[in-house]
Amino acid sequence: MPDKKKIADLHFMDARCKLIDLAAFFDRMDRHEGASDYRDEALRRAVPILLENRADRAKAILDLLSDESTELLESAPFQGAFGAPLPAKGGAQ
Which contacts of 75-82 are long-range, i.e. CB under 8 A and separated by 24 or more positions? Predict the structure, then answer.
């Protein structure tokens, strides 16, 4: 079983890149005008979970970003996923 140093040797640069990408995304969102976006808000809600000392961070963030609704949409606005649960009707989009 690898130790922490071996795991860092293998995965640190990838994690570093993803963290910088997320920071750049937040920078871009903060520089522009307009209503907030539910996907940006969902990612910002995930950051405190990322910093918690718990064994299930990945699951907790996946749960936060998962749409658990059971209602079917009348029609799909496009082919693909939103990446975060849609806000309740009347919420920010």
Answer: 82/39
Cα–Cα distance, 40 to 28 (Å, whole number) = 11
pLDDT mean over 29-47: 94
- In angstroms, the Cα distances linking 25 to 28, 49, 55, 81 are 5, 18, 26, 19
CA angle, 81 as apex, 77 and 86 as ends, to 5°? Answer: 75
pLDDT tens for 39-74 read 999 999 999 999 999 999 999 999 999 988 777 778
pTM: 0.78
Q: How far apart are CA 83 and CA 63, in angstroms?
A: 11
Q: Domain map of the chain by residue range?
A: 1-34, 37-65
